[in-house]
């Protein structure tokens, strides 16, 4: 066999071994979060390298500290450090790896062959959100995971977006613990009234936030009226038909000229191998496995079309954040 062919074959074999073993990456990350390694190293900002003796063979004495391995946090590690508000990206990692979610993953091939198969439902007997709602711990972890990712995002959005002017009453559909509303109200005193609208079991455990009323309900049936509607990370998890229904209910709840301000991960027209595109495409498979087989990450054009079908004649997309795109639909 020619040297070049051998090299290519060996490199393909190494690549497939790496792919097969890749589960050790998220599972090690899971262990790092559970062991609270990031906080142990960070120690209030000192980023003190954590030492431990290198692995040694039985019978050998432990190495002395000068030979010890040292670990300190990279920028990625720092996303797992608990901040002043008790948040980090750690809860998002743990949320993804809960038993009920893990049970759905080996069924992805069935959903590929037959898109009417819902892997999470097949594995657990009911859809993810109603399943979380019945389990106190899962419900709590989901809310913590959403807060951990949403609070840093909202800081970027509130610095870069000025569309809340003239809004007195703002409804956050699928607002979870109400963090997004809390931050919007703090930054924009003109927003006097916030309505955090989510499933009854979710709002039942939401914290008291001045100016915010928690309202339990189902966005597929109706949405409370407001001068504007905010919605973050909601449309992605549903099919086109379901998105149209949510958006039509939003349209009905808005006055003429009112805006539906949605923040969603939006796919680029052309894919590349950047971190952003990889995170988006991996998230697409996550949505398909855990929420709806026909739920998906969409392109800007797909969102524009959904908006038109729901009745919104005006649309613009703002790329303020590294991951989410702000989609403004105006009545
Ligand atoms: C991915 S989370 C996003 C939470 C929050 N907007 C954020 O970004 O941090 C989706 C939210 O939609 C809520 N949700 C799911 N089905 C719903 C329904 N039928 N009516 C209202 N809210 C719903 C979930 O409970 C959850 O809080």
Automatic annotation (TrEMBL):
<keyword id="KW-0808">Transferase</keyword>
<dbReference type="InterPro" id="IPR029063">
    <property type="entry name" value="SAM-dependent_MTases_sf"/>
</dbReference>
<dbReference type="GO" id="GO:0032259">
    <property type="term" value="P:methylation"/>
</dbReference>
<dbReference type="GO" id="GO:1901847">
    <property type="term" value="P:nicotinate metabolic process"/>
</dbReference>
<dbReference type="GO" id="GO:0008938">
    <property type="term" value="F:nicotinate N-methyltransferase activity"/>
</dbReference>
<keyword id="KW-0489">Methyltransferase</keyword>
<dbReference type="GO" id="GO:0008171">
    <property type="term" value="F:O-methyltransferase activity"/>
</dbReference>
<dbReference type="Pfam" id="PF00891">
    <property type="entry name" value="Methyltransf_2"/>
</dbReference>
<dbReference type="GO" id="GO:0005829">
    <property type="term" value="C:cytosol"/>
</dbReference>
<keyword id="KW-0949">S-adenosyl-L-methionine</keyword>
<protein>
    <submittedName>
        <fullName>Caffeic acid 3-O-methyltransferase</fullName>
    </submittedName>
</protein>
<feature type="region of interest" description="Disordered">
    <location>
        <begin position="46"/>
        <end position="66"/>
    </location>
</feature>
<dbReference type="InterPro" id="IPR036388">
    <property type="entry name" value="WH-like_DNA-bd_sf"/>
</dbReference>
<dbReference type="InterPro" id="IPR036390">
    <property type="entry name" value="WH_DNA-bd_sf"/>
</dbReference>
<feature type="domain" description="O-methyltransferase C-terminal">
    <location>
        <begin position="108"/>
        <end position="312"/>
    </location>
</feature>
<dbReference type="InterPro" id="IPR016461">
    <property type="entry name" value="COMT-like"/>
</dbReference>
<dbReference type="InterPro" id="IPR001077">
    <property type="entry name" value="COMT_C"/>
</dbReference>
